[in-house]
Design brief:
595 residues, TIM Barrel, chloroplast, amino-acid biosynthesis, 17 helices, multifunctional enzyme, imidazoleglycerol-phosphate synthase activity, 8-stranded parallel beta barrel, glutamine amidotransferase, Rossmann fold, 8-stranded mixed beta sheet, 29 strands, alpha/beta
């Protein structure tokens, strides 16, 4: 399968940082991530990565197999490309406004923020061509931001004028009513009778990730083909004639999402087998599979798992614990029903993360056959290479996005940024959190927190947030605070998990991955005291991590806290507990899950 072409260079945007990133990602394949092989310091690091070797079989569609893709160069559209190819179609990238007007079918997978997207469309003369194409009832599918841009304007960093094809203003979700923002996860649709491309969803969940939405009104009701409930009832999809747009991500909604793309690309096809009717009714709790990836002593990239962050076997050889190959495991977890797959890159290259070609290849291979969200963390920060060239964290994140990541996870760098913010009270706009969330939206930025429990005799012993713990400490202590760590848990910092979570939310994080060093690898359950503390304190989603040993631990954390998702690693890798068993247990307990 050929490498997807890079997008058109962008000469205008709302921020200089986004201009730099779009230009760097829009050049020829020679300036893609492979150019980093030129750095002699890393030429000797030959690491082996195996893909699954399974590729989609192309349909025989003759001359009608081309899909025109409008990719303006921000965020992960590799998954859309892979889904289109998986369904047997070829891709033609928009280079000029004429390419839009000449398209037989056009897909606009809008990602990122509203204003930069409109800047690109206007500066390239594509806004007018796009309006003309849609007004002439040509086959069109907008995805996420590709739906929002059809409306009159958006409040995101605005007001910002949109294409004005559909009456209405795109506004932010209201978090004051107890709903976390962004709206992240698998939710249910209320579908109208004449939806066409949604005909095979059959009451099953689809994947959303957004902070802004358009609301139904008398003026736009003729456009609406489905709605979704999250605090308020918002527009989930629109349809008029051959023009369709969806707020959710079909390319990240598994087989259900692929059916939406298939119905758009092959509108005259008939359903030979009626899909099983689902029971989706509201936002589901997510079950996430996590893969800690690093090189072993033989140079192979493997999935490993730590015991309180120690990934080496307690044997004479002291070898790295090897639990499988990352691409194959990710593919299996997708088939098993994982709602997301998270890669934590704990291999080397800390001084040169863009030289980590094997990890980039893992993302590329995985995204070819895994159609649920992919998150990657590790080494996302500013750095200089061996030649003294400076790379921003935004450039590092952008390469991960272009390689197939939907979200990036920031660890140690977020701790330093939060400490500085709490010390000065100033948002500099220069931290990795602020830079990445400004260009790609806060829904694309996860902060991974690695705290360690510190027991106290009195709640007045420290200046940080202290809680009364459910289980007393070794000396009968009734209180504890959670000290944040950096560098894989090796260094404690003078900041608590509560203080860090509040600060990173202010700086632009859209989600928190909440680990616990004390529980890691123990199989005794999540630290519900910690999860409740953080999930009650922020208005962004919290993922509970560390300690899962059986299905009951998942229902416990969902029943006792406001966690939006729960993540596990070792019990899945060692096949102790199948993902489907976890979901069946949650379903029996009355907890909404995607089945």
């Amino acid at each position: 399968m050929e490498a997807p072409p890079f997008s058109v260079a962008v000469s205008s945007s709302s921020s200089s940082s986004s201009r730099t990133v779009f230009r760097s990602l829009s050049s020829s394949a020679h300036t893609s991530s492979l150019f980093f092989l030129r750095n002699n310091h890393y030429k000797t690091r030959h690491l082996k990565v195996n893909s699954s070797g399974k590729f989609a079989v192309r349909a025989s569609l003759g001359g009608d197999s081309v899909v025109t893709l409008l990719d303006y160069g921000a965020g992960n559209v590799r998954s859309v490309r892979n889904a289109i190819r998986y369904l047997g179609f070829d891709i033609k990238d928009v280079q000029t406004p004429e390419d839009i007007l000449n398209a037989k079918r056009l897909i606009f997978p809008g990602v990122g923020a509203f204003a930069p997207a409109m800047d690109v469309l206007n500066s390239k003369g594509m806004a007018e061509a796009l309006c003309s194409y849609i007004e002439n009832d040509r086959p069109f599918l907008g995805i996420c931001l590709g739906l929002q841009l059809l409306f009159e304007s958006s409040e995101e960093n605005g007001p910002v004028k949109g294409l004005g094809l559909i009456p209405g203003v795109v506004g932010r979700f209201d978090s004051s009513n107890g709903f976390t923002v962004p709206h992240i996860g698998w939710n249910a649709l209320e579908i109208s009778e004449d939806s066409e491309i949604l005909d095979e969803i059959s009451n099953r969940h689809v994947y959303f990730v957004h902070s802004y939405r358009a609301m139904p009104s008398d003026k736009n009701k003729e456009w609406i083909s489905s709605t979704c409930s999250y605090g308020d009832r918002f527009i989930a999809s629109v349809r008029r004639g051959n023009v369709h747009a969806v707020q959710f991500h079909p390319e990240k909604s598994g087989e259900v999402g692929l059916s939406v793309l298939r119905r758009f690309l092959l509108p005259k096809s008939t359903v030979t087998k009626k899909p099983n009717e689902g029971k989706a009714s509201r936002l589901a709790k997510r079950v996430i599979a996590c893969l800690d990836v690093r090189t072993n002593d033989q140079g192979d990239l493997v999935v490993t798992k730590g015991d309180q962050y120690d990934v080496r076997e307690q044997t004479e050889e002291n070898e790295v614990r090897n639990l499988g190959k990352p691409v194959e495991l990710a593919g299996q977890y997708y088939k098993d029903g994982a709602d997301e797959v998270s890669f934590l890159n704990i291999t080397g290259f800390r001084d040169f993360p863009l030289g980590d070609l094997p990890m980039l290849q893992v993302l590329r291979y995985t995204s070819e056959n895994v159609f649920v969200p992919l998150t990657v963390g590790g080494g996302i920060r500013d750095f200089k290479d061996a030649n003294g060239r400076h790379y921003s964290s935004l450039e590092v994140a952008s390469e991960y996005f272009r390689s197939g990541a939907d979200k990036i996870s920031i660890g140690s760098d977020a701790v330093y940024a939060a400490e500085e913010y709490l010390r000065t009270g100033v948002k500099t706009g220069k931290t990795s959190l602020e830079q990445i969330s400004k260009v790609y939206g806060n829904q694309a930025v996860v902060v991974s927190i690695d705290p360690r429990r510190v027991y106290l005799k009195s709640p007045d012993d420290v200046e940080f947030k202290v809680i009364r713990v459910t289980n007393p400490g070794p000396n009968g202590e009734e209180y504890a605070w959670y000290q944040c760590t950096v560098n894989g848990g090796r260094e404690g910092r003078p900041i608590g998990a509560y203080e860090l979570a509040k600060a990173v939310e202010e700086l632009g994080a859209g989600e928190i991955l909440l680990n616990c060093i004390d529980c890691d690898g123990q199989g005794k359950g999540f630290d519900t005291d910690l999860v409740k503390l953080i999930s009650d304190s922020v208005s962004i989603p919290v993922i509970a991590s560390s300690g899962a040993g059986c299905p009951d631990h998942f229902s416990e954390v969902f029943n006792k806290t406001n966690a939006s998702a729960a993540l596990a690693a070792g019990i899945f890798h060692r096949k102790e507990v199948p993902i489907q068993s976890v979901k069946e247990h949650l379903f029996k307990e009355g907890i909404e899950v995607r089945m």
